[in-house]
Structures are given as structure tokens and as C-alpha cells.
Design goal:
heterodimer, A: 756 residues, Aldehyde Oxidoreductase, domain 4, eight-stranded mixed sheet, seven-stranded mixed sheet, B: alpha+beta, Ubiquitin-like (UB roll), DNA polymerase, domain 1, five-stranded mixed sheet, 5 helices
Chain lengths: 756, 164
């Protein structure tokens, strides 16, 4: 493993360098084992039968013919799960109602979206299981679907649930409705604020449902042993969260479930909830054999949790000096089939980048006949930024103020208060703007017909949550580090680097492993931009624990009091110039005394918010509406970049997902609620030919809430791109886009409408 | 169920014979029959490129090739790219340039890039983006992948012994 040079001015020895990841060779040679790669003796294959309708009552399910097909071993339906309690299970980043989870896993009395799982078959081969699914007779009473939040909020809209009542401003009502929740944040005096404004802009926006688009399909393999212990192999963002969901759905204690996390091929929030694991467990219980289920790509689109489409209205006022006086938002997010859209986060993020003296935000969580939505990288924030950041662009145009100057003037700083209440600690919104302002991109004028430049900023909270790590010192001076965060992008190396930094040893000496749920302490999901921050902290604590033990052992060895020995600079120092390096001390003490095992755990409370500003140049084809990206620069406050190459990768990858969301990606539904583009050919994610290089500017404003100043990095880069693109399109051709995606037909439509 | 066929082929330089149903794809046989799981399944309908292998020297998505079609053919997969434990320059370049995050698309990208460099040892950035446009990566935004291929091309063309 080679280590490249540290960033100039870096005060650390390991942090800030770019070592090759510990799992790298396995991943470039095809040796790494992902969830789909598991093979067990006697394994059966499961296939799910899914609803062809977007909304229907299930009158009956007859699977007798399927069971008779040779090679079929079992069929599972919803009733095979014990009755779920109407209670909320906390899943770390988000929570789930267990009844809803049960009915989402295998449909109860109703199917609520096309692709909703209805039954599952376990058979000797996938082909037999697929044939058997065709023999299951489901008698549906088809109902009218409702597909968008504004439609679903109408009083005469078809109702999805007979037990969802609107929680309105904190009060439970008796109103049966698709609106599960309406809440409000307020600050200051809104009317006075708008009165003080010189310019007021109010616009409404519609954004489409989009998918995380991880390349690895969902998978789950389970073995329900005759002793009642269940082992699950899967690709998940949280092995402990998967364990909890399986245990809750199957009504068994968590101690009876062991989740072995396989390598995971992307998640972005979509692999937090379980879909297949509990079904595989039930089928295994019925057959006494391990059962493996893998989704096909259409199932991934239709049967998992995309992120919501939304309707947003933003009104903002600013005075003649370009200071925001008031801002108001009305936001309705599609929850999909069951309550729980990320509207809460969206509503907290909508004005989070700016100092808003007078503000009001109304949020609505609305059920529609689409898959139950799930987290997707800064869930809820991207939709919101599209609205706020384009309204700001229009205000700047009206006031003839540079959008950069406006943002610098109104951007939040330490001590600023968000509309929903919290006061910011030290943050880097202004620094992220200045990084763009000082960039070669911003300083280079853009010329040419139909070309334009746009900027936009974005915010994401980041989170802390629980993490654990243990470390065992080997007799050769290497250290085996076991941590609980499933690794989607090189995090085990980022964590090992913080561990190595703390002990002052080389990261090459660390052997990091992602443990299963029986091998490491409870660790929350790989999500919320929390892993490098919180699991890194747990590793830091484990390293300090080892340093303490090493200090004591050196004192014993030297026969001096422990308080005269210090762990520093990768070794121990004692009185009279006594000194042993980490490795030499390990060699000296390995023959006698107990092994050295360090433990660390963390539940840090101050993740430090993340801010990003993106700048994009586009060229719009006036004949087709196609938007070509000419240049893209993204700046972001990352606190401290542990592994700068991986930080850049997060920024670049997030920006490109945001570009896809902005320009092309959408669930395209027909009137019956059937998704018509559930393939990677038609659900058009960016390819490398669609893009230029993405310049990532790392801004480091250390987070005071972390021993190494780390802030979460992964999520916020998806937030600014759609708005930055919309602003660039306006700058290029003078049309304001208010719908996502800004695909060629939509842009062309606006071009033609303007020409009339 | 249709009768199984015997297929004789050469995979990564080794003669391999296997039984398969006529409807089985090369991807299914590689992964499920031969236990060569380095070739990844992303979509099974030819849209993502994760299952790219070389068939008689040409890159193909193995999910769209029937296993019976490889009778008498030569197949190269990701498992055959490193030689006697030494990584191929492309594999080194993907590691050195941090060109992978989750890694599920990586085998496909390496196979496709290997074909590119065999056809065109000095590709421009556009050549690379054009040739790799059938391979989807959702993590990296492609920037570091393109740089890795540029890096590997530079190293391979400066070293006459490097095997393409």
C-alpha cells in the first residue's frame, strides 16, 4: 500500500494523505464478495410476485397451484408474518411504523403501488420460482390511483388508508386523509417582513420522483436454523438496523438474528429499509433451507424506496440593499404508499443557507400510489433548494445584484438562527461561497451564444448517532480494527486513518474489518454523512484506550510509576529518556501479560452542518432543449478532509447525482399509475459522456464538535445542482425552469412558450 | 425444462466445459455455475455494463449473451486481468486514482477500459468518455474513472512490456 504526500500545511501525519483503501485489491480483481455473491449449501432461490396495479384491494390469494409445481418448496404471503404492532421503530436516520413496514414487505389487504410485493416463492431455481409466481391467482378489486401530492390533498381524492388521520400542527384529528401530517415553522413577523421588501418573488415548483440508482440490486439471503437462530447475509447500509427490522417483523429477539453485512454496491439511502431479508427469513423457516432473493432492475425501481416528487411554493422578499426581509414556503412531499416522506428535513433545509429574519414554512406529508419513499442523499433538501435558490436568482435579477454578492450578504454564519429554531455553531457557508468566488471558473468569463452560468448553495445537517469499534494489537505491531459501519465508499480506510493518527502509527499497520452484528458493538446506519465523523470517533476512542494500556504496560516494563510515562509520537516515553516505539513496545510485552484490546464507542451530538456552493456553465440547444454541461465546480466545507481523494469523490459523485436529478431522471407514470421507464435505458442516469470533469474544491472549516474537526461530507453535494443548472439555463436562454427534471422536452416547451 | 447442453470454452486461458440450459445467459453461468462472481449483475438487460467481459477479444455485456453462444469461444473476465498476482496497470490506476467507491461497477469498467486501450492506446478524454458511456457508475461522477484510464494509458504506452 502506498501513501502519497500529505497536503501542504497539514498538521497531521496520516489524516490528509491519500492511502489506497484496504479493500481495494479485492474490488479491482472481482474478489470482493457482495450480497449477490453469497452461495450456501442447499440454497433455494426466492422470487417475489408483485402487484400489476397501482391501487387495489386484495380479495383473495390462491397459491395452491404454485405449491404443486415440481421444485417449489414454499410460498409466503403477508399472513406468514406475525401481526405487527402499530408502533414506531427508530432506525437511526429515520423511523418506521412496523405495521406499514410489514404491509410494505408483503402487501396486507391492499396493494398501494405498482410493484408492491404480494407473495414470494422459494424454489430450486430462479426460473422455477418465476414460473410458480405466474400460477398464483390474486383476485384484485382495482381502485383509482392518485399520483401526485396536490391531487392526493384534494378532498375527493381516492384514499390510500383507512387508518391514516391528519396530524395537523401537532394535533391528532379525526379526518381520514392522504395527508398524514401538516406542520409549521415560524419566526419573526412575516407580514412586516414582506412589507419591508422592495422586491418579492413567488414561484411554484414541481419535482419528479427519482431513484437512488445504485448499480447493485437489492438482495437478501437468510437461514432460519432449527435452534431458532436466524442468519442474514445482505447488502445493507446498516446491519444492526436490518437486524432490528427482521427481528421486529418476525417477532423474535434481536439476539436471535445475526446480520452478516456483505460488501455493498451503492445505497445512497435506499438500502436502509429491508425489503427481501424478512421474506427470505420466513421462506427459510418454512423450508429449513437457506433462501436467497435478488431483485431485478425493474423491481428496484418499482418495489423499493425512491425519493419523493414534490410540490413547493416559495415566496421571498428582499430590500433595496439585497437583504432578505421575509421568506415563506409551502411544501407538499409525496410519502408514497405509507406516511414518512423526508418533508421534515426538507422544511428545515429550505431556507437553511440564509439569515431569514421573518419566515414561515408549512410542510405536508402526503400519501400517493407510488412506492413508499426512502432516504436519498440529503433527503428532502434537493427539492427544497431547487425552489429557494432559483427564487433568489430571480430576486438578484430584479435588484440587479450579483447572485454571489447576494449570497455572501445573506449567508448564514455562526450564531445565525434557522427558521425552525436551531442556532448555528461554527459553519462554512460563507467560506464555500468565497471558494467559488476565488475559483478559476468564476473568474473566467463565459462567452458564446446560448451559454449561461448559474450558482446555487445547499445545506445538510449531517448526523451523529451511535458507533462502535474494537481493536486488537497483534504481536507484530499491526492492529486489527473491527467497526460496525458497512463501507460503501472507502470508509473503513477513513476510519483506520483516524485510528492510526491517534496512535501515531502508519495506516498500513491497521487491518480494518466491518464486523457482523455479533462481532462489534451497535452501530447505526451508513447514512446521514455520519460514518467518518462518528465511527471515526469510535475508532479514535479505541486508539486512546490502547494508548492508555500501552502506557501502563510500559510503566510496568520500566518499573516506573504510570504517571511518568506518556504516549506520544507513535510510542511511549518515560523518565531518563526512556523511549519505545509502538511496535517495539508490542514486541517487548507480547510474551507476558494480557493481550491488548481497545474499545471505543461514540454517540456524538455536534455533527456540524455542511454547506456547499456549486457553479455550472451550460449550453442550451434552442432546437431540442438539450442542456450540455460545459464546466462544473463544486466547493464544500468538509471540516477536515481525512482522505482528500475520497472527499473529492463524494463531492463529484453527489454533484453528478444532482445533475441527473436536474436534467433527466424521473419516474414516468401513465394514468393508471404504472411506471413506464423502469430500466436503466429509460430512467436516464448520467453517463460519462454526458459530463465534463467535476472540479471539487475542498474547504476546511474544522468542526469544533469532533476531535479531528470532521464534518459529514457525503450528502450535501447533491443539493445545489438542479438549482445551479436552472439558474444557468435562465442565464443562457432566458427561460425560468420550475419543474424537475429539466429534460429536453420540458426545456423546449418553455423555449417555445417564450417565443409566442 | 429444456435439455442441458455441453459447452466447451476457454475462460481466462483455461479450457472450461459446463452444462447449461439454452435459456441461461453467460452471466448466469459465470456466476452461478462456475462460481466466478467477479463479473457483476446490475440490470440483466444490457443497460449498465457491470457484467462486461471480453468474448473473442471484444467487450460484451454477458447478460445479453447466451451461454451456449460461447461454445468454442474465448472468454476473458475480471478474474483473468491480474497476472500471477500482479495487478494490471488499469487495476493499479483505479486504486491510485481512487476511481472506485462501492466497487460494484469496477470489474465492468476495467474490462471495457481494457478493450479501449487495446484498440486505442492513446485515447483523448472524449475517446474515453465515448467508449465507456455504456458503463454506469453511480458513485464517482466518472471524473476519477476517466483520470484512471488516462493514467493507465500513459503508463502502458511508456512501458513496452505492458500487456494490453
Amino acid at each position: 500500500m502506498s501513501t502519497t504526500e500529505a497536503t501542504p500545511g497539514n498538521k497531521y501525519t496520516v489524516i490528509g494523505t491519500r492511502p489506497i483503501r484496504h479493500d481495494g485489491v479485492d474490488k479491482v480483481t472481482g474478489r470482493a464478495k457482495y450480497g449477490g455473491d453469497i452461495r450456501l449449501t442447499g440454497m433455494l432461490y426466492g422470487v417475489m410476485l408483485r402487484s400489476p396495479h397501482a391501487h387495489a384491494n386484495i380479495k383473495s390469494i390462491d397459491y395452491s397451484a404454485a405449491l404443486k409445481l415440481p421444485g417449489v418448496h414454499a410460498v409466503a404471503v403477508c399472513d406468514d408474518f406475525p401481526d405487527a404492532e402499530n408502533k414506531i421503530a427508530e432506525l437511526g436516520e429515520g423511523a418506521v411504523n412496523l405495521q406499514h413496514l410489514r404491509h410494505n414487505t408483503l402487501a396486507g389487504p391492499k396493494v398501494l403501488y405498482r410493484g408492491h410485493a404480494v407473495a414470494a416463492v422459494a424454489a430450486d431455481t430462479i426460473n422455477i420460482a418465476e414460473e410458480a409466481c405466474k400460477l398464483i391467482k390474486v383476485d384484485y378489486e382495482v381502485l383509482k390511483p392518485v399520483l401526485t401530492a396536490p391531487e392526493a390533498m384534494k378532498p375527493d381524492a381516492p384514499l390510500l388508508h383507512s387508518n391514516v388521520f391528519t396530524n395537523s400542527l401537532g394535533e391528532e384529528t379525526k379526518t381520514l386523509s392522504n395527508v398524514a401530517k401538516h406542520f409549521r415553522f415560524e419566526t419573526g413577523d412575516l407580514a412586516a417582513g414582506f412589507k419591508a421588501a422592495k422586491v418579492i418573488v413567488e414561484r411554484e415548483f414541481n419535482t419528479a420522483t427519482v431513484h437512488q440508482g445504485y448499480i447493485e440490486p437489492h438482495n437478501g439471503t437468510a437461514m432460519w436454523n432449527s435452534d431458532g437462530n436466524v442468519t442474514v447475509w445482505c447488502s445493507t447500509q446498516g446491519s444492526f438496523t436490518a437486524r432490528q427490522q427482521v427481528a421486529e417483523l418476525c417477532h423474535i429477539p434481536v439476539g436471535k438474528v445475526k446480520v452478516i453485512p456483505m460488501e455493498i454496491g451503492g445505497g445512497f439511502g435506499g438500502k436502509v429499509s429491508v425489503y427481501l431479508e424478512p421474506v427470505a427469513a420466513i421462506l427459510s423457516r418454512k423450508t429449513g433451507r437457506p433462501v436467497k432473493i435478488i431483485m431485478n432492475r425493474a423491481d428496484c425501481f418499482e418495489g423499493t424506496g425512491p425519493t419523493p416528487g414534490s410540490y413547493i411554493r416559495v415566496k421571498m422578499g428582499a430590500d433595496a440593499n439585497g437583504k432578505i426581509t421575509a421568506a415563506e414556503a409551502y411544501m407538499a412531499y409525496e410519502a408514497g404508499a405509507y406516511p414518512g416522506s423526508p418533508i421534515g428535513a426538507g422544511a428545515m433545509c429550505v431556507f437553511a443557507c440564509y439569515d431569514i429574519p421573518n419566515g414561515k414554512v408549512d410542510g405536508f406529508d402526503v400519501c400517493v400510489n407510488k412506492p413508499r419513499t426512502n432516504a436519498y442523499r440529503a433527503p428532502g433538501a434537493t427539492n427544497a433548494a431547487m425552489a429557494t435558490e432559483t427564487v433568489i436568482d430571480e430576486i438578484c435579477e430584479k435588484l440587479k445584484i450579483c447572485p454571489m454578492e447576494f449570497r455572501l450578504k445573506n449567508g448564514v454564519k455562526e450564531g445565525s438562527r434557522r427558521v425552525d429554531g436551531p442556532v448555528y455553531p461554527r459553519i462554512g457557508m460563507i467560506e464555500s461561497l468565497e471558494a467559488i468566488q476565488n475559483s478559476d471558473h468564476w473568474k473566467t468569463p463565459l462567452t458564446g451564444k446560448n451559454r449561461g452560468r448559474g450558482i446555487a448553495s445547499g445545506f445538510w445537517f449531517n448526523c451523529g448517532l451511535k458507533s462502535a469499534a474494537t481493536a486488537t494489537v497483534n504481536f507484530d505491531g499491526s492492529v486489527a480494527l473491527v467497526e460496525g459501519s458497512t463501507d460503501i465508499g472507502g470508509s473503513r480506510t477513513g476510519i483506520a486513518m483516524q485510528f492510526a493518527e491517534t496512535l501515531g502509527i502508519s495506516v498500513d499497520q491497521i487491518i480494518p474489518t466491518v464486523g457482523d452484528t455479533d462481532s462489534v458493538g451497535y452501530t447505526d446506519v451508513t447514512g446521514g454523512s455520519r460514518v467518518t465523523f462518528a465511527t471515526g470517533w469510535a475508532a479514535y476512542e479505541a486508539a486512546r484506550d490502547i494508548a492508555r494500556q500501552m502506557t501502563q504496560r510500559a510503566a510496568d516494563l520500566w518499573e516506573v510509576p504510570a504517571d511518568q510515562v506518556k504516549y506520544e509520537n507513535g510510542g511511549v516515553s518515560g523518565p531518563d529518556g526512556k523511549r519505545l516505539s509502538f511496535k517495539d513496545l508490542v514486541l517487548a510485552i507480547s510474551k507476558h501479560g494480557e493481550p491488548i484490546v481497545g474499545r471505543g464507542s461514540a454517540d456524538p451530538q455536534c455533527p456540524g452542518g455542511a454547506f456547499a456552493t456549486h457553479c455550472v456553465d451550460v449550453e442550451v440547444d434552442p432546437d431540442t432543449g438539450k442542456v450540455t454541461i460545459l464546466r462544473y465546480t463544486a466547493s464544500q466545507d468538509v471540516g477536515t478532509a481525512i482522505h482528500p481523494a475520497y472527499v473529492e469523490g463524494q463531492i463529484q459523485g453527489g454533484a453528478v447525482q444532482g445533475i441527473g436529478w436536474g436534467l433527466n431522471e424521473e419516474y414516468f407514470y401513465d394514468q393508471s399509475g404504472v411506471m413506464r421507464n423502469s430500466t436503466f435505458l429509460d430512467y436516464r442516469m448520467p453517463t460519462c459522456l454526458d459530463l465534463p470533469m467535476i472540479e471539487a474544491i475542498i474547504v476546511e472549516v474544522p468542526n469544533p464538535g469532533h476531535p479531528y474537526g470532521v464534518r459529514g461530507v457525503g450528502e450535501v453535494p447533491i443539493v445545489p445542482p438542479p438549482a445551479a443548472l436552472a439558474n444557468a439555463i435562465y442565464n443562457a436562454i432566458g427561460v425560468r425552469m420550475t419543474q424537475l427534471p429539466m429534460s429536453p422536452p420540458r426545456v423546449l416547451h418553455e423555449i417555445l412558450a417564450k417565443a409566442k | 425444462m429444456a435439455k442441458k447442453r455441453i459447452v466447451s470454452t476457454t475462460i481466462n486461458g483455461t479450457q472450461r466445459d459446463f452444462l447449461c440450459e439454452p435459456r441461461q445467459t453467460l452471466l448466469e453461468v459465470l456466476r452461478d455455475t462456475l462460481d466466478m462472481t467477479g463479473t457483476k449483475e446490475g440490470c440483466s438487460n444490457g443497460n449498465c455494463g457491470a457484467c462486461t467481459v471480453q468474448l473473442n477479444g471484444r467487450p460484451v455485456v454477458s447478460c445479453l449473451v447466451l451461454a451456449v453462444e460461447v461454445d468454442g469461444a474465448t472468454v476473458e473476465t475480471i478474474e483473468g486481468v491480474a497476472c500471477n498476482g500482479t495487478l494490471h496497470p488499469l487495476q493499479d490506476a483505479f486504486l491510485n486514482n481512487a476511481a472506485l467507491q462501492c466497487g460494484i461497477c469496477t470489474p465492468g469498467f476495467i474490462m471495457q477500459s481494457k478493450s479501449l486501450l487495446a484498440e486505442n492506446p492513446n485515447p483523448s478524454e472524449h475517446d474515453i468518455r465515448f467508449y465507456l458511456a455504456g458503463n454506469l457508475c453511480r458513485c464517482t461522477g466518472y471524473d476519477k474513472i476517466v483520470r484512471a484510464v488516462q493514467d493507465a494509458a500513459g503508463k502502458m504506452s511508456s512501458c513496452c512490456e505492458a500487456k494490453v
